[in-house]
């Protein structure tokens, strides 16, 4: 499968069928189709955990008793194969307590399957807006744990692994929860490995409407700060319980930043908090979370904090050393793109943008966007098309 990878070398994937490393049990191996077929009861509907852009995910149990989640590619085309290859490539490189590691894969002539550890508390999406939302298991402490853990997973990808990795699809359905509600960031099929010395690249737009940074959505400019923007939206979602895009009566769609903006301006923090918390939250932590989210969703990528700063601030420190006045300035999606969004009606947060070369934001009403990759003064673009 190495030949199908375009992002960079894949020596690890080709060499190893069994790797042990890092913390915990990180061994992965190649599975046979028959093994996975048996483990998932023939990929039966009863075993189905959910469905995404890549295909369906099934619960299973291996012959040695391990509970697994098996993601089965729905169509064998070059785009899907690329996603599969990137996911396996990236997963083979990363080891972190907040990243969902690879348990194995199966790559036969006409199937592609990826095997992960089964996460008993499913996805953050299912708790915030899906079938587990009614159980109200997410108290404030858990929410903070999820926010900080997800941020730490991203920090590792951006700053600790070499080459650095940009996830490009940070969203609630891609944050899975283990039995202790420790978050594990999943789904690296859209990830980009950043060669050393490259600060950003220009790519086609992939990702999910509602979480996309404006410079990425408009110009395909991708850097770590795109993930920071998505994380800011995710953080707002965690503390407010609002969807990134919601449908209002009459069909009008509104982003979470548009909703939050006036409440933040008026200092109505209590109205921002998820009603499911019933007022049980740490007020300082809440304000700090809104503060961090506001910094992350700024339209100018260079003004967004790094994930190092985000983690530090969420843990109660402020490395910027000053008290910031929290403000969110929302940016607007084009109406026709909002039409494509399906996030509001169910657990499946759809809205996935496959390969779009168009910008997804309308003219900036609130803020004037400058091309962030234009060198000040000399007018030269420094982006690199990859
Ligand atoms: N390791 C796992 N453990 C438990 N449930 C999982 C696991 N992986 C995925 N799931 C469940 O399967 C669902 C589908 O996941 P999948 O990643 O295919 O789609 P998605 O995240 O909804 O969309 P996208 O394709 O855009 O990532 C998830 O929402 C999640 O609830
Ligand atoms: Mg997913």
UniProtKB/TrEMBL annotation:
<protein>
    <submittedName>
        <fullName>PTI1-like tyrosine-protein kinase At3g15890</fullName>
    </submittedName>
</protein>
<keyword id="KW-0418">Kinase</keyword>
<keyword id="KW-0067">ATP-binding</keyword>
<feature type="domain" description="Protein kinase">
    <location>
        <begin position="43"/>
        <end position="320"/>
    </location>
</feature>
<keyword id="KW-0808">Transferase</keyword>
<keyword id="KW-0723">Serine/threonine-protein kinase</keyword>
<dbReference type="InterPro" id="IPR000719">
    <property type="entry name" value="Prot_kinase_dom"/>
</dbReference>
<dbReference type="InterPro" id="IPR001245">
    <property type="entry name" value="Ser-Thr/Tyr_kinase_cat_dom"/>
</dbReference>
<dbReference type="GO" id="GO:0005524">
    <property type="term" value="F:ATP binding"/>
</dbReference>
<dbReference type="InterPro" id="IPR011009">
    <property type="entry name" value="Kinase-like_dom_sf"/>
</dbReference>
<dbReference type="GO" id="GO:0004674">
    <property type="term" value="F:protein serine/threonine kinase activity"/>
</dbReference>
<dbReference type="InterPro" id="IPR017441">
    <property type="entry name" value="Protein_kinase_ATP_BS"/>
</dbReference>
<feature type="binding site">
    <location>
        <position position="72"/>
    </location>
    <ligand>
        <name>ATP</name>
    </ligand>
</feature>
<comment type="similarity">
    <text>Belongs to the protein kinase superfamily.</text>
</comment>
<dbReference type="InterPro" id="IPR008271">
    <property type="entry name" value="Ser/Thr_kinase_AS"/>
</dbReference>
<keyword id="KW-0547">Nucleotide-binding</keyword>
<dbReference type="Pfam" id="PF07714">
    <property type="entry name" value="PK_Tyr_Ser-Thr"/>
</dbReference>
């Amino acid at each position: 499968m190495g030949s199908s990878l375009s992002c960079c070398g894949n020596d690890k994937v080709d060499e190893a069928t069994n790797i042990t490393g890092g913390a915990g049990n990180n061994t992965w191996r190649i599975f046979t189709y028959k093994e996975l077929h048996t483990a998932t009861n023939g990929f039966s509907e009863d075993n189905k955990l959910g469905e995404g852009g890549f295909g369906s995910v099934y619960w299973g149990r291996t012959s040695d008793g391990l509970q697994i989640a098996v993601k089965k590619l729905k169509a064998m085309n070059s785009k899907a194969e690329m996603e599969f290859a990137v996911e396996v490539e990236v997963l083979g490189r990363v080891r972190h307590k907040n990243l969902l590691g690879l348990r194995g894969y199966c790559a036969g002539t006409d199937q592609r399957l990826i095997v992960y550890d089964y996460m008993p508390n499913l996805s953050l999406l299912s708790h915030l807006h899906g079938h587990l939302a009614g159980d109200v298991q997410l108290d404030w402490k858990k929410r903070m744990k999820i926010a900080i853990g997800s941020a730490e997973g991203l920090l590792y990808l951006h700053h600790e692994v070499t080459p650095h990795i940009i996830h490009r699809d940070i969203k609630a359905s891609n944050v899975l929860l283990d039995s202790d509600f420790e978050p594990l960031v999943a789904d690296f099929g859209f990830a980009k490995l950043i060669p050393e010395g490259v600060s950003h690249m220009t790519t086609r737009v992939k990702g999910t409407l509602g979480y996309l940074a404006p410079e990425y959505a408009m110009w395909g400019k991708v850097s770590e700060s795109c993930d920071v923007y998505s994380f800011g939206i995710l953080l707002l979602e965690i503390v407010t319980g609002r969807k990134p895009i919601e449908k209002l009566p009459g069909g009008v769609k509104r982003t979470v930043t548009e909703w939050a903006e006036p409440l933040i301006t008026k200092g109505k923090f209590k109205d921002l908090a998820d009603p499911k918390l019933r007022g049980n939250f740490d007020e300082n932590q809440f304000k700090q979370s809104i503060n961090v989210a506001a910094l992350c969703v700024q339209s100018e990528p260079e003004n967004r904090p790094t994930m190092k700063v985000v983690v530090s601030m969420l843990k109660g420190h402020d490395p910027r050393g000053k008290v910031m006045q929290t403000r969110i300035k929302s940016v607007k999606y084009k109406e026709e793109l909002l039409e494509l969004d399906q996030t509001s009606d169910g657990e499946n947060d759809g809205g996935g943008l496959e390969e779009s070369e168009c910008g997804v934001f309308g003219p900036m009403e609130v803020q004037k966007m400058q091309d962030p990759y234009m060198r000040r003064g000399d007018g030269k673009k420094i982006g690199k098309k990859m």
